[in-house]
Amino acid sequence: MRPGLVVVDKPGGMTSHDVVARVRRLVGTRKVGHAGTLDPMATGVLVLGVDRATRLLGHLMLTDKGYDATVRLGVATTTDDAEGEVVSTASAAALDEETVRATLAEFVGELQQVPTAVSAIKVDGKRAYQRVRDGEQVELQPRAVTVHELVVHDVRREGDVVDVEVSLRCSSGTYVRAIARDVGARLGVGGHLTALRRTAVGPYGLDVARTLEELADDVAAGRGGVLPIADAARAAFPSRDLDDAAAADVRVGRSLDLALDATTAVFAPSGEFLALYEPRGPVARPVAVFV
Fold first, then answer.
1. How confident is the model over 131-181, as pLDDT tens digits?
2. Which residues form the active site (predicted)?
3. Through-space distance between the first and last CA atoms of the chain, rounded to whole angstroms
4. What ranges in the chain are assigned the alpha helix state H?
5. Longest Cα–Cα distance in the chain
6. 8 A C-beta contact, residue 117 and residue 77
7. Are strands 239-241 and 264-267 parallel, antiparallel or unpaired?
């Protein structure tokens, strides 16, 4: 199997590791990794790297992400989503739509967000969620995140709770569950997520995502289902085509006399993807060489 990216439409009920294990069997290599986890409850875009393309994943994890979500106001849970135990309830029936929309609008922009306690963040070398499972009290520090856009599609009352359908674009590291929790807290009724679907990771959206069944069919039919590493790099990063002399320098990891604005994918005259380079003053230096 050639190196590249596999963009999976993850089903609900599977962990990201479950998806990686399935794809390893399908493509016939253990060298498969993912660019950022999705909770078992969540569905949608999960970007996987195969073989050498796994080295792209750390850079892709830093890109913006898109989500569709359902926030339920009136109930708070231990995990800030529907998989946790209910810790409090309060009637949200008195909330009017204008107040709900105005409160959600306050969560656009640069935020200091406390991640959910059952996140994968490491605390003294141990995942926060594991500490919670072991009965420990976990207090995580606020982190800077950015919500670029948050669109409210629908606000509907269901008895004592209010369900809000939203779409958002946000920086890597933003916890949508934490937004649901914090909106509910600000409104005084508690909140959690009942549904989450990731619609995009950087340039990769649901339009290019394949279900595991579709991927299996592609592999069985010899179509592969893997986005070649050169195409993946051009889609995710600014690109620069080099001449033969510069390409030879890249192959041995030399700096280049290039003015770059951001981390850039560089290519040989043949179209071969060579490396990622970043600006360092008047020159460009290698971040990762793939040849």
1. 556 566 667 789 999 999 999 999 999 999 999 999 999 998 899 999 999
2. 39
3. 17
4. 16-27, 57-60, 97-105, 128-133, 176-187, 212-220, 229-236, 244-251
5. 70
6. no
7. parallel
Name residue 257's amino acid. Answer: D
In the chain the domains, ranked by start, together with CATH numbers, are 4-63+203-231 (3.30.2350.10), 65-199 (3.30.2350.10), 237-289 (2.30.130.10)
Q: How many residues does the chain have?
A: 291
Catalytic residues: 39
Q: Looking at residue 221, what is its pLDDT?
A: 83
Which among 227, 233, 235 is positioned nearest to 291, based on CA atoms?
Answer: 233
Pairing verdict, β 32-34 and 43-50? antiparallel
- Count CA within 13 A, CB hemisphere, residue 28: 7
- Strand blocks (E) in 92-190: 109-113, 122-123, 126-127, 143-158, 161-170
- Burial level of 261, CB count in 10 A (0-12/13-18/19+)? exposed
Written as six digits, the tokens of 164 are 């809000």
Q: Burial, 234: exposed, middle or buried (Cβ in 10 Å; 0-12, 13-18, 19+)?
A: middle
CA distance 221 to 225: 10
